[in-house]
Amino acid sequence: xxxxxxxxxxxxxxxxxxxxxxxxxxxxxxxxxxxxxxxxxxxxxxxxxxxxxxxxxxxxxxxxxxxxxxxxxxxxxxxxxxxxxxxxxxxxxxxxxxxxxxxxxxxxxxxxxxxxxxxxxxxxxxxxxxxxxxxxxxxxxxxxx
Length: 145
Fold this sequence. Notes:
Layout: H1 2-25, H2 29-41, H3 45-58, H4 63-75, H5 79-92, H6 97-109, H7 113-126, H8 132-144
Helix pairs in contact: 2-3, 3-4, 4-5, 5-6, 6-7, 7-8
């Protein structure tokens, strides 16, 4: 009986070890996000999008994943889809200034200059100074005309 218990214990331990190892082998949403960011830095936008899609599958309520997925779509010229992702990110994180900046760029490329300027103004109000040149160049000149 003791021998049987020992065998069972060994089998159970091995099973837990392999189960644990398989869990560790699975990528997390953060792993896919990091992988996507690396692809973006290499301008591999299709691969980046695939990684961000995997991250989103694992974690649907992460505004960072949505923002990066939007950027990949934006780089691929899928501007309306990018705006959808930016909108979702802003629903989760209403003060995500960088996303207002990005959404403004996509709107501008779609000839929605008013929407672009509104987004850049929101980003500026939140404290993102990266939009000041855009506001001066594209929004203030427009208002002066």
